[in-house]
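Lecture notes, unit on protein representations.

Consider one protein chain, 186 amino acids long.
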Amino acid sequence: MSARKACVETSVPLRHAAYSAEEATSGRWGNCGHTRLVHMSVRRRDRHSRGLRGPLALPNPLTGRPARPPRPATKADFFTEAVHGAVERIARQCPDALVGVTFGVEDVPFLETAWSGDRVPLAAALESDADRMAQVVIYRRPLEHRAATRRGLSILVYRTIVEQLSALTGRSVDEIDPEGLGDDTD
């Protein structure tokens, strides 16, 4: 097979070519002297199928700054919102169960005091003392690990808080959650 029959047409953007345009047209770059470069627009390139490069929107004509698309809430922010939503729902159904109780969120349980055994707790309920109010502490990472979706996480957070309030106040789960809203979200 001769060098003339092995000519190839390449499509390489100029700014990423290994050689200059003069070397490519002179024949030193390809297999033969007939290699042709196809110029690609840098702005329209979809490199490695990851989408177009550059800003998603043009700058605002009034401020001159580019528009930023809204970002989804972080996992920690979503978890905090789920705890607030669960407490608000319980406050509508059984406000007496929340009297004198504070809520807290921690990433993981503290090793020495939180559990003994081979199961990781999802939450802790601490009774009131003369110095502090009763507390319900929800552990974010173990709950996130058990939920498959964000909707499932919000349901799991709600059920966990209802169970901890039931253990803390001595009320039944049906009294705190009379409509059984642990299965459904608002």
